[in-house]
Amino acid sequence: MTVDRSTAFAVIAAFALGVCVAxxxxxxxxxxxxxxWIARAAKALLWVAAFAEQPPEHRHDARIVQHAIGDDxxxxxxHGRGL
Length: 83
What we know:
By secondary structure, the chain is mainly α.
């Protein structure tokens, strides 16, 4: 893959602009202790919810339906429930 001269200059200019903009004189993000506390609590609750969830083998899968087999050996299809 070849890069033409104008694309290379555009990449270099974008990099230089990013370096110039990201100097220590740029404004610092505001200190929001309440929002950071809420974010930390939400992150902790996500971990609690992830570990509180039952493993897949202990869950009842509602999609699995016991098939009823007719006298001819074929499954009886109940169209209200699927197979």
